[in-house]
Write a structure and sequence with these properties.
Low-confidence stretches: 1-51, 68-88, 102-107, 367-372
Largest sheet: 2 strands, antiparallel
Mean pLDDT: 77
Radius of gyration: 47 Å
Order of helices and strands: EEHHEEHHEHHHHHHHHHE
Length: 372
């Protein structure tokens, strides 16, 4: 063993090192180990203590030393995204599909619309169809079958046939029945929509007593509407020529339920909106409802008076005045129901899939919730 001083001992501040030399000969493997150790020592020297340029230091960091004799390359450990990707486990195709299906289940189901109909258009359809059919039946029967439609039990002079007369002869009766059959379906849908609309407004009432009265009135209006529609079906399909006594009784039921429904609707709107309508559409709808209801009351009074004159006194033209009042009653009834276009001016009727997420409690079609 010999001690020697590193170069620069006097001026460079060198450090004395001790070198242990083995007695035997030095082979190539020992020389390689010493070179690796020296490289490690050089690499651990702080950068500020070396006089190397900064660019060379960065090059040394990016390209670690490599010893071709030993085949050892010293690399700095990396934790970047590419290394993480290489370390990630390999997922097969089936496992990937299973993961995708699980992920899709967690996402909200997308709404798929199959059909969309403007609610206003549907209301126009329910008005134009029976009104247009009634006009066609009146003109065709008046022109081609005047004797049949003017015949009464009193055998008096008559110029205006009744609705039952022009829709009770053939083939007008078939046209009228087809139009009512197409007309009834939307009428039931409108009845359900009105009930749910009233329930939505009921949610804003905080007073329990007032809310209970409104709830009872909603159910009353709903059932009166259904009875009116059912009575209309009965009057249509039970002709006065086939069974006059039953036709007369069903017609009375239709008149009573129609007027009661109008009155109950106006009362309900007063309870729901004590301060008056909130929008211009609602204000116009309320005014039209009141006007059509007043017209229905006046024409119903005239209808009863002229019917009694015709039935008990057989006065001339009494039945014509009765028929005129009947047409006014029918027109006022159609007008009252067509205010739906003002109550729902921008709503649409949808047939869609995955719509349960948009369903609200007051918008259901359940029958249990209609109990008084």
């Amino acid at each position: 063993m010999e001690a020697r001083e590193a170069p620069g001992g006097e001026h460079g501040g060198g450090v004395a090192t001790a070198s242990h030399r083995p007695a035997g000969p030095i082979n190539s493997s020992n020389r390689s180990d010493q070179r690796v150790v020296s490289d490690l020592s050089a690499n651990t020297v702080p950068q500020h203590s070396t006089g190397l340029p900064q660019q060379y230091q960065q090059h040394q960091q990016q390209h670690p030393p490599h010893d071709p004799a030993s085949g050892v390359t010293l690399r700095k450990s990396r934790t970047n995204a590419r290394s993480k990707d290489r370390a990630a486990p390999v997922v097969s195709g089936d496992e990937e599909d299973a993961v995708d299906r699980t992920h899709c289940k967690t996402l909200p189901e997308q709404l798929v619309v199959h059909l969309i109909i403007g609610f206003r258009d549907m209301c126009v359809f329910t008005l134009v169809l029976p009104l247009g059919t009634l006009f066609v039946c009146f003109v065709s029967a008046y022109v081609f079958q005047p004797e049949e439609i003017h015949e009464t039990h009193c055998r008096v002079y008559n110029i205006i046939p009744s609705i039952s007369a022009i829709t009770g002869v053939s083939p007008q009766r078939y046209l009228w029945r087809i139009s009512i059959a197409l007309h009834i379906g939307p009428r039931f849908i409108i009845a359900f929509v009105y009930r749910n609309w009233y329930r939505a407004m009921l949610a804003d009432i905080a007073d329990p007593g007032r809310a209970a009265r409104v709830r009872r009135m909603i159910n009353t209006v709903y059932w009166l509407n259904l009875l009116e529609i059912s009575a209309l079906c009965g009057v249509t399909y039970i002709s006065n020529k086939e069974n006059y006594p039953l036709h007369e009784k069903v017609f009375i039921v239709f008149m009573v339920t129609s007027l009661s429904y109008m009155l109950a609707t106006l009362k309900l709107l007063k309870l729901l909106q004590p301060n008056g309508p909130q929008t211009p559409y609602e204000e116009s709808s309320l005014l039209y409802k009141q006007a059509f209801f007043a017209l229905s009351i006046a024409s119903t009074i005239g209808l009863i008076l002229f019917f009694l004159k015709h039935r008990f006194f057989c006065q001339d033209l009494a039945f014509s005045w009765f028929a005129l009042c009947e047409y006014i009653v029918a027109s006022a009834n159609m007008g009252f129901h067509c205010t739906t276009m003002l109550d729902f001016p921008t709503e649409d009727l949808l047939i869609a899939r995955n719509a349960k997420q948009y369903k609200k409690p007051h918008a259901s079609l359940g029958w249990k919730s209609t109990v008084f």
